[in-house]
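Researcher: We're reviewing a set of sequences before deciding which ones to prioritize for further study. For each one, I'd like a predicted 3D structure that I can look through quickly. This is MSP domain-containing protein. If possible, include the structure in token form so it fits the rest of the review sheet.
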Amino acid sequence: MRFNLQCHSGLDPESRNRKQTKSIFFLYFFWIPASRLDLARLVAGMTVWLIFPFSAYSVGISVSPPSLELRGAPNKKITGAFTVTNPSRETVIYEITNDGLFSLAITPTTFLLEPNKSAIVSVEYQPIDKLTTDKLTTTQLSVLGRPLTVNPTQAASGIKLPVSIATGQVAGAATRRYDPMMMGIILFDALLLAWLFYLIIKRLRMRSTHP
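Model: Here's the predicted structure for MSP domain-containing protein, in token form for your review sheet.
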């Protein structure tokens, strides 16, 4: 008797090999023993079927930067962005969701990425109530990915992106604390003013000594 092993054309080579190998195991260990009542081979087949590594593998997700900081003036819109990259060998559907209670506008929320392609996702924070005090809080976004083609050997995957929101003096203090270039400019200006003041005093003294 002949058997034709066919694989769906939509499967990638790795998935096709797994499916074909699993079919061969089934024919050798299950169908043949059932006709010959070979219990030993049947037990061996069930053992191999259970322990053989046919587990599902997840699609890839890469997010940069690893965390998102939204800083700005109180009661104003604050915008930021991050990049999602598909490191997989197939097209993946990505979905971005807001896990917190804060009003975050995400664009886009769902998109397709081919292998090794990237997309920029913008995030906008709009305070609902007017704040009278400075604010510093954190939340997170979920970045979910699932394969475009239905495949039983693949599983959806996801990561969490931490998001920090700072407004008012809290944001200004954080900016000054992490901006060494601004501190260098301020120091240079102070030294320049001191040098000009020294030259003016020196010239005035020379005029008073030699009228």
